[in-house]
Fold each of these.
Amino acid sequence: MIDFNADIVSYKSLGNIELERHIDFYLDEIYKNFTVEVKEYMTPYPFNEKMYAYFLEAGTIIISTNSEGGIIAVGCNEHYQGKYKKKLYAGITMKELILLTKSQRILNGTLIVDEDYGMSFTLPSPYDEMADYIESIPLDLKLNEIFVSDDSFWEPKEK
């Protein structure tokens, strides 16, 4: 059952919506219980794959699927009430995030914390384009969006 208070679980789920499930598993519940907007988009070159995003309650939860309907990411905005590891949440300030985590890394417009590549904070504009160093992000900046996915391909490989 979809829950706006459920824990955020790296590499696995957000809102009790699980990665790698087919969207069909959730469609009845989604359309019966929530206001839903569906958007189609294309991934950037060189992939050019058609994707879909399901926005529940104006983006409180965002479900991203591939063209076959497989769930590849689940995100939330600051209206979501669940937390990651009982401490991190959408709407947290940069200062609080730094205080509550051991490490932060900027990758492709997102923040990876504690080397966990299964959960990320989306950096808002213009910081998604211009921030290369954690120090360049204002401490009072609110991070209003979290995504759970498998971004382990970004993880540095040991030599």
Amino acid sequence: MEKILQLRIIDIIPETTEAYSFVLEDIEGNDIHYKAGQFLTLIFIINNREVRRSYSISSTPGVNEKLQISVKRVHNGEISRHLIDHYSVGDIVEAIAPSGMFVLNEGSYENKDVILLAAGSGITPVISVIKELLYKRSANSVVLMYQNRSVQTTIFRSEIEKIATDFSTKFHWLDFRSSDQEDAFYRRLNNEKLEMLIPGYIKYDPAKTSFFVCGPESFMRMCQFTVTLMGFNSKQIRKEHFVIDKPPAPPLIINPQPAKVTILQQHISFETMYPKTILQSALDQYIALPYSCKGGRCSTCVATCVSGEVIMSMNDVLTEKDMKAGLILTCVGYAVTDIVLEYSTDAAGKGN
């Protein structure tokens, strides 16, 4: 069910003193299919235990020749430090196929406004989306509001500057820096400034405006609260979480019963029983389903529920449209009845 990729590191690019990009290729020369804004889940064996970490893809298919992930060193971050300090060009890493919901709709973005709100390493999936919009989707109104501490800590600064030069009439970059920005207005992006700035960058129908938000949790909450308070629909907002909280408590299910789970493509069936999630039940029976965070925030585990009823205890990535299409997160999903699930390479890449 879960295909493991063997990827060779062919280049390591220092983006700042704390952030590095790893350029990867399949060891057998196969193409790695992904969409702008998605992430790659790496698999490590640390002290005889399997550890999975997802890292956003900063390259863009059709724009960059090779897939590239970007990693920022996290204080007390077990895996980010391990990857940055101990891996070199030529080393092999294991991963599962790229996934994620932080992606664009199909089709052109001409005459549609796209506003991207990023802070710190939250720029990683955002830069991928920006390149997709401008180089491939005919977008003519793309705005990046990017919060950092300083010029030196701004990841992809030179690349953003080049994009701003190449698309000077279509791309606007608002460079917020808390420690070395001379203009006091552009030192800290907050709710008041968002309310002031956003209307000035809406050229077309506000109902068709798309927002992409990624950064620290407090920053993302501020952005989402402000944008929705301004009258935009939550369906217009895509978020990407880097910090995963502890798995949420299971929802209350009255009189739970054992349920049969059938995976269509693989002709696999197994039993699940509350209070175990669908994913945990599968893993306990040595059935390899895709996953990463186990917290309902990354969408690696997304599947389509073809029949039956599933209740989720947490959902921070699926939109109302996604759920109407039957998408569920198995890591926080509980089968109320017998269910049939379908996994699709497209299911993890649908936009809002």
Amino acid sequence: MSLRLALRPLAVCSALFVFGHVAAAQTKVAVINLQKAVLESAEIKAASAAMEARYKPRVTQIETLDKEIAAIAQNLQSNAGKLTAQAESDLNAQGTKKQRDVQRLRDDLQADVDRDRNEILQKASVKMGDVVKKLAEEKGLDVVVDMPYTVFAKPALDITTDAIAAYDKAYPAAAPPAKK
């Protein structure tokens, strides 16, 4: 059994003890869906659109290669028995090379998209944390709990939309560059 699992009951009891004492002092609590707040911010929506535009040429290149591979496969199927052994071998080699190329392009694209997305989300999450802290101070909140860890909360306690609005005000999305 790991140390983390062994200490979990102690941590829960400690939290209940602390919250029990704090609750007597009328603790002000709010909940937030932090993931939703980050993903629905104008900055993230703009970054998503920018990423889509940035990677569109590579997606188009992959789609073109997919069509070429399908055309080679169709050619091989429709001309089965009509092609010379050398022509069939050449088409198979072309198809195999294009399949390797498209797989490499897909892997590279996915790695680049994942890296960029994670970097953008990490920065936005840090900024959202600062916004939530400031919002909690403004509203006089003692505790803000992330929704995924909440069993039940009244909708009136949800500050997700307030956090999105505060984030968008603090970090307005950059206007997309004008098309020429």
